[in-house]
Specification:
transmembrane helix; metal-binding; 2-oxoglutarate and iron dependent oxygenase domain containing 3; dioxygenase; dioxygenase activity; alpha+beta; 7-stranded antiparallel β-sheet
């Protein structure tokens, strides 16, 4: 069945990793969000709305969708879908017909988020960007190192077994499945019609200045414009806004106002990936912000398997 195909493709992926491969370009794009396409859409949307191109509505209206102190079961705001999905093949029972954004603190526990954060910390401790933004992609092996990226699995070989355990990967898989099921439930689609896609990765952000464009994570962008395969994007936050770090809030940039999500360990923010959800992340001012971006596509051609140890 599909599970077997995924595993074989995950194994195949591992044996064919190329540090200069397409996954790297994609991971760089998502992290830096130097989303030329997203920015073009942004200026086009904004100039139509008579909003100055800096992108902040003239009156600077900001609304908090989720405060750090909230404990949200399932907050969901429906928004009309953009036309972005029309230029891609549609998949019945999956391609968004209902669009919007949601936040929940009820899918992943804080304790699970802490365990996941420790996986991120251990992996990222092997490398790290010279600038303020580092990534670790357990699927492709991409790890920030200085001003570049290395392939974790090639670079560290069998030592990987000393860094990660089967339990780590099982927890990662379980968390991914639960987030996938929640997205499917909220958008009224079939969970089995969704595929994990790349890049899916851990991020660690701090206030160190950018050294390369890969470190510039704060630009407004649209996921579907940056990576055509994305249909649903989710973020699992692994640290707390205003306790572990300052700045670093997630901002949906709507025509009439900015709507912010304050990260909290265990909080999942999820949304359809089109221009209806133009967004950015504020620069981190102090401390360290950990999160994991988990992306889904409706196109099986762009599906990836869960990471496997060894």
């Amino acid at each position: 069945g599909r599970g077997d195909r995924r595993h074989s493709s995950a194994r195949k992926g591992k044996s064919q990793q190329d540090p200069r491969g397409r996954w790297l370009k994609a991971a760089i794009l998502l992290l830096s969000a130097a989303a030329g396409g997203g920015l073009v859409v942004w200026s086009r949307l904004r100039s139509q709305d008579g909003i100055p191109e800096g992108g902040i509505p003239a009156d600077g209206v900001t609304e908090v969708l989720a405060h750090r102190s909230d404990n949200l079961r399932d907050k969901f705001i429906e928004i009309p879908c953009s036309e972005d999905y029309d230029s891609h093949k549609r998949f019945a029972g999956c391609t968004p017909r209902k669009c919007g954004r949601g936040v929940t603190d009820a899918v992943i526990t804080r304790e699970e988020a802490e365990r996941i954060r420790r996986i991120a910390e251990r992996g990222l401790s092997l490398g790290g960007s010279d600038g303020g933004a580092s990534i670790l992609d357990l699927h492709s092996g991409a790890l920030s190192l200085g001003k570049h990226f290395v392939n974790l699995y090639r670079y560290f070989g069998d030592k990987i077994q000393d860094i990660f355990t089967e339990e780590d990967f099982a927890l990662y898989r379980d968390v991914r499945q639960r987030i996938q099921q929640r997205i499917a439930q909220v958008f009224g689609i079939s969970s089995s019609a969704m595929y994990l896609t790349k890049p899916t990765f851990f991020s660690r952000m701090n206030s160190t200045g950018a050294k390369t464009t890969h470190d510039e994570y704060w630009h407004p962008h649209v996921d579907k414009v940056t990576y055509g395969s994305f249909d649903y994007t989710s973020l699992l936050y692994l640290s707390d806004y205003s306790e572990d770090f300052g700045g670093g809030r997630f901002v949906f940039m709507d025509a009439d106002s900015n709507k912010t999500v304050e990260p909290r360990a265990g909080r999942v923010s999820f949304f359809t990936s089109g221009s209806e959800n133009l967004h950015r992340v504020e620069k981190v001012q102090w401390g360290t912000r950990f999160a994991i971006t988990i992306s889904f596509t409706c196109d099986p051609e762009h599906g990836i398997g869960d990471p496997l140890l060894g």
